[in-house]
Amino acid sequence: MPHDTLPAATGGRVASDSEPHPGGRVASDSERIETPSPGLDTGPSGPTRPTEQSDSERIETPSPGLDTGPSGPTRPTEQLDTELRGLDRLQTTAERRTPWWRRAIDGVLPPVLLLVVLVAAWQAYTVIAQPRPDLAPGPLDVAAALGQAWEDGRLQLAVATSLERGILGFLIAVAVGTPLGLLLAEWAPLRRALGPLISGLQVLPSVAWVPAAILWFGLSDATVYFVVLMGAIPSIVNGLVAGVAQVPPQLRRVGTVLGASRLELAASVVLPAALPGYLAGLKQGWAFSWRSLMAAEIIAFGGSIGFGVGSLLQQGRDLADLASVLGTILVILAIGVVIELLVFAPVERGMLRRRGLTGGTP
C-alpha cells in the first residue's frame, strides 16, 4: 500500500538501496549513513578492529625485582650480574697465585715420600731375608759405597764431567735439530724424503753408534759427543715436525696477510704456535742424550775420555762391587729426576699457564 509520507526515523537501521531517499532518490554509497558498533574505530572504509592503545601509549607496570630499560623489563639484576661474572671467569686466569715454596713442596714432596717408602721396604727385605751382601746389598751398604766415592772425589768428578757433556751435547743437538725440523716441516718434498730416515734414526739404539764412533774418532770426547748428538737430534726434529703439523692454518694466513716472509712466518708464527710439540721433543731429546751419554761412557772407557758417571759404573762392575754399581745407578736416576723437576717441568707449566690451558693456579 502506498504511503503518503516517509517516517522521520528508520528505527536505528541502515537504509537499504531500495528504500527511497528523502527527496525522491536512492541514497548513494557516499551518502549512506551507518551506525557504528560500540568499541569499533570508524574510518573512511567503515568499521575496523577494536580500538587499541599504541605501543608508545601503552603503560606497563614492572614486576618487583626487575630492571626496566628502554626495551622493557629485563632479568633480575643480581642473577644477571652473577652470570656475567661466571662468563668472565671462563675467559680469565685466576689472579691468586700459589707461593713458590708451596709449588716446590707439591712438586718435590711426592717423589721424596715414594723414595722413602721404597728404601724402607728395601731395608726391611735385607733385615728379614738376610741375603748375601755381594748379591743384594742393603741401603746402608749402598750409602757407604757412595760415601767412599765422595771422599775419594770420584763421585764429584764423575757427576761434573757427565753433566758438562750432557748439557753441551744437548745444546748442540737443539741448535742442529731446530732449523732442521723447521725445514722438514715447511718443505714437504724434503719431509717426504728425509722423514722416514729421521724416524729410523730415532728408533735405532744410540749404543749401536759407539763402535763406529770409536773407529772414527778413537777414545776421545768426540766419540761421546757424536753418540749424544745421534741420540738427541732425531727426537728434537720429530717433535718439532709433529708440533708444526698441529698449528692452525689460520695463523699462517694471518702472518701472510700482515706481510711476513717465509722465514719470518716460520720463526715468528709457526715456531711459537708449535711450542707444545717442540717442548715434548726437547724433553725426549734430553732423555735420549742422557741415555746415549751413559752408553758411550760405559763402553768407551780410557784413552783421553774423561771420567764420567758411566765410567764410575763400569769401574764398579770391574771390581764386582754391587753396592757401588747400585749407588751409581741411583745417581744417574737422581740426575734425570732433578733435571726434569727443575728445568722442564717449570717451563712446561709456564707455557700452559700463558696459553690458558691450566684450570687453576700452577
UniProtKB/TrEMBL annotation:
Superkingdom, taxonomy of origin: Bacteria
Alphabetical GO biological process terms: transmembrane transport
Keywords: Cell membrane, Membrane, Transmembrane, Transmembrane helix, Transport
GO terms for cellular component: plasma membrane
Region annotation Disordered: where it falls in the sequence: 1-81
Keyword match Cell membrane: yes
Biased composition (Basic and acidic residues): 16-34
PROSITE patterns, per database record: ABC_TM1 (PS50928)
Membrane topology classification: Multi-pass membrane protein
InterPro entries in the record: MetI-like (IPR000515), MetI-like_sf (IPR035906)
Residue span, ABC transmembrane type-1 domain: 159-343
Subcellular location: Cell membrane
SUPFAM superfamilies, per database record: MetI-like
UniProt record similarity statement: Belongs to the binding-protein-dependent transport system permease family.
The protein's name: ABC transporter permease subunit
Species lineage: Bacteria, Bacillati, Actinomycetota, Actinomycetes, Micrococcales
